[in-house]
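To: structure desk
From: M.T.
Subject: fold request, one chain
Message: Could you run this one when you get a chance? Sequence is below, nothing fancy, just the single chain.
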Amino acid sequence: MYFVFWILSICYVRFSNGLTVNGNHVIKNYYYYNDKYTVSCSFWSWGRCTRYRNVRDYTLGCAAGWWSILEFLFPGCDYAICDGKTVFTGACNKYYPNDYQKTKNKGIVRSSGGTCSSPDTCTNCNDGFYSNGPYCEMCGPIANCNHRRCTSGSNQVCAWCDGEVKYSPYWRAYTSHLDTTKCQKACSWRSDSTRCYPGTCSNELAANCQCAANFGGTHCENIQDTPAIEYNHCKFTDDQGINIVENEPNYVQQSHPIIWTNFLGYTKMKTSMVAKYMQPADNRDADSYITGFRVGVIEQRTTMSYYSAGSVTPSVKTLTCPGMHRDQPVDFETCPMDFSIWNGMGHDDKILYEVSSTNGGYVDVANRENGRTTRYYYQGQTLTRTFEYHWDVVNPYHCSVSAGKSCTHFISIPTDITNNPIMTFSWDGWSDDLAGILYYEYQVFDLDKDGTQLVDGRVPVANAGNKPINDTNDCVQL
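Reply: Done. Structure tokens follow.
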């Protein structure tokens, strides 16, 4: 007799997901289960009995913070997770709609970029961004800075300031060469800065602009001193050049005494003026954005204004000296000008001779950002001098000619007849309604005999000229 025993074997199959024990960032996830098995039992152990045992097993998975793109194909977990994102879903990257970095190579950059190299840790951020855990974030702001760099949210420095064409003097509108944590305004071609010429900018900074002596303003564009008029001459003459009235040509004061005349036959007015203005030393560097500079005298003008008696509205003749203007200043210029006189000159007429000189000039400025050169003009000063020529053709008079008016004698002598060789006398009561009395002159004559009568002597025995107006007495030794 044969006995046949049937053995039941139950197999558990664990399906693989592609991960391997040695794969990157792969871990074993252990678990327990009841394993059923049979044993011989009953009489003579001919029967089979079911038993259970607790068995530990594992599955393979990705460690926390790691991810596998296809677990059933790849042996490892090669992709880190940053804030729930992987490289395939924009891990680390932040987009800044209201801020940006401006780099020399890439232009405007608003996205932080970066690589999630380990869980919640970003590396390889774009230039101008720093790693801050699961994100790359933009470096903090610096006013007037295009491109900031940093390693944290508080240590940003400027790598490229606004308007910095080159990292070199005269090529930047803002500079960080003194302090990389800020961009400071430099003297430059920009209108919101200062050209500062003629002048100097200590450390390139606009705040340190020091204009040259006698220049001022935001850009040192205002000339603060006048030209010098070193000669101003006006001569009235007749056709023969015999009768002449003229001013003191080297008179340099602003006010000048009236020049009086009683001659009506002048036909010509001859004038000449000399003006000078010397520009300060031109000490700009060869690489300066100032490419041209010139200041000096830009205008010399002579004006003759004729006022007829009692008139307040003049007839005007004006001439300007040729060969100078704001694009062609000169240091020094002599300028003769001739005028014809007005016809019909009369009593109480006057002519004002006015000379003026104006300084100015230009500065050429290269815009480093667009390559263009712009010319700017200086605001100059004008020096003016005026001389008055006044006609008074009515002679001075003594008060005794006015009817019904009592006054002092035109001359008083203590004794008419004397043998004293020292004679004293006085005078008073003289007037001139327009020009006034400038000075007195007198002459003393001997009394001569002409046959049977006494006559005035023909040759004066004493003369006095230019006696001051407040000096109304004198004595002579005969």
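Reply (cont.): The chain has five domains: 1-77, 87-161, 174-220, 226-391, 397-477. Let me know if you need anything else for the meeting.
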